[in-house]
Amino acid sequence: MLVELFIKGGPFMWPILVVFGFAMIIVLERFYSLTSSELKTKGFVKKVENVLRTEGLEEAKGFCAKSSSPIAAIYYQALSKMQYGIEEVEKTVQTAGSLEMAFLEKNQVWLTTAISLAPMIGFTGTVSGMITAFQDIEAANDMTPAIVAGGISEALLTTLFGLVVAIIITVFQNWFMDRIDKLIVSMEKSSILLMDVLIEKENKPAGKEA
Description:
Layout (H helix, E strand, L loop, with lengths): L1 H7 L4 H29 L2 H11 L2 H10 L3 H11 L5 H19 L3 H33 L4 H65 L1
């Protein structure tokens, strides 16, 4: 049934299918990447905080370097600037955080492109189908349903297919954006925890000397 409708939709169905296939590859990449980031971030903060408190700065940096979690990259950059003071660490955290946010949002633009492109191709197919219908009428010098049915069917099917593809990809994109927002909030909270630990660690010697 679907194959028949696809064939009836005419040549513009193929570009829409290509757009859909490309978008689904991006969807799979985004799903794997975000799921991996979420799993690696969970539990990392407590572990590195424990290493920092018990084993020291260099060991914590080494622990961060071994992890591919987005928050690990922020922590590593922050710990590397500890010798320059808390203010420099705070600036580094903000810069590294922005870079990791860009990484999390990678390839989202391609989903946006697919969402725009699929209906546009569908509407182009609609225009093509209507032109075909009018050409058939002109050739037959008659306007019976049988003559125009093929062109109108092609016009409606390409529009339908383009819109369905755009709807499916939009659902995935919004779901990914929600997950990205939650990851960013988690990373911001983790960065605040790191700053608290570093400030506490920096102030400890002064407290002991007092």
